[in-house]
Design a protein that fits this description.
With 300 residues, the chain is of the alpha+beta class. The protein folds into two domains: 157 residues, Ribosomal Protein S5, domain 2 (2-Layer Sandwich); 127 residues, Alpha-Beta Plaits (2-Layer Sandwich). The protein has ten helices and eleven strands. Strands 1, 2, 3, 4, 5, 6 and 11 form a seven-stranded mixed sheet that branches. Strands 8-9-7-10 form a four-stranded antiparallel sheet, sandwiched between helices. Helix 5 crosses helix 8 and helix 6 runs antiparallel to helix 7. The structure holds cytidine-5'-monophosphate. The site of cytidine-5'-monophosphate has 12 residues, from strand 2 and helix 5.
Length: 300
């Protein structure tokens, strides 16, 4: 018997970053939107804990106990006094090290899969607790949809979304380390008084109404990590420009990057933008996806 869980990627439609805290993390106002690009995590009984991975970028995914999916299984097993003898297989479709929470998705997927496989019957609150221990973005990977994350992003308030948004994601040739991007943010702001991060009411209204023009108007400048990501990965400026030239309503870096996100008016326009990005030679792949998408879901 095995259990397979499908988990979505995310884009941050607002990532307001405060100053560095004493613990090194940053307080955030993080508006997460789950998008329909998915990893699938399958948990199967085995002699010992192992991780395998297939799909684009799988060679960059660690297969030892530093893998966030392995850590999720170990955390759940430890809490319930279970032997974590499980094979975790990750079918990757979310860009690796791309700023789309692929590692967090695998952690949330492993947690839900192992919970079902082992029959631990953990409550939603307990699962969310474990998610928050594993990483700032992991709770959102579990819940999906749209949510405002505060604290380091792990405290979630679900948000209403009144429509479907069409996106194109340009996968970059290479990855960015999230801690390195936050360090660059700190360097760029070392002489600034960084304001408290606050979610934009105009953005929350745009999401609630499903108003693509209002969302597009808000997106430029909505990601405080974008200047840091561009500083470390300057070629992304060309990718952003190419997507705008191909008809995207708005272009931004996804989270800490280097994936870039393009909002399109509809499905046809999204395909045009994807073709334009590929023709311009400014990305490794261009993926079309819609939002919102459901959180971690056990597949039948
Ligand atoms: O929480 P997670 O392990 O995903 O965070 C990865 C890194 O990103 C942290 O070690 C930290 O450097 C940075 N980070 C941060 N502030 C946050 C979230 C992440 O500085 N709110």
């Amino acid at each position: 018997m095995s259990v397979t869980v499908r988990v979505p990627a995310k884009v941050n439609v607002q990532l307001a970053v405060g100053g560095a805290r004493p613990d090194g993390f940053h307080d955030l106002a993080n508006v997460f939107l789950a998008v329909g690009l998915y990893d699938e995590v399958t948990a199967t009984p085995a002699d010992e804990l192992t991780v395998t991975c297939e799909g684009p970028g799988a060679d960059q995914v660690p297969l030892d106990r530093t893998n966030l999916a392995a850590r999720a299984a170990l955390a759940l097993a430890a809490r319930h006094g279970i032997d974590p003898a499980v094979r975790l297989h990750i079918a990757k479709d979310i860009p690796v090290a791309g700023g789309m929470a692929g590692g967090s998705a695998d952690a949330a997927g492993a947690l839900v899969a192992c919970d079902a496989l082992w029959g631990t019957g953990a409550s939603r609150a307990e699962l969310l607790d474990i998610c928050a221990e594993l990483g700032s973005d992991v709770p959102f990977s579990l819940v999906g949809g749209a949510a405002l994350g505060t604290g380091r992003g792990e405290r979630l308030r679900p948000l209403e979304v009144g429509g479907v948004f069409h996106w194109v994601f340009a996968v970059a040739d290479g990855g960015l380390s999230t801690p390195a991007v936050y360090r660059e943010f700190d360097r760029l702001h070392e002489n600034d008084e960084v304001p408290e991060p606050v979610a934009s009411q105009a953005l929350l209204d745009a999401l609630a109404k499903g108003d693509v023009d209002a969302l597009a108007a808000f997106l430029p400048g909505s990601n405080d990590l974008q200047p840091a990501a561009l500083s470390l990965f300057p070629q992304l400026a060309d990718t952003l420009a190419a997507g705008r030239a191909a008809g995207a309503l708005a272009a931004l870096v996804s989270g800490s990057g280097p994936t870039t996100a393009f909002l399109a008016r509809d499905a046809a326009s999204a395909h045009t933008v994807a073709e334009g990005l590929l023709a311009a030679g400014v990305c490794k792949a261009a993926r079309v996806a819609v939002s919102p998408a459901p959180g971690a879901t056990i597949l039948p």
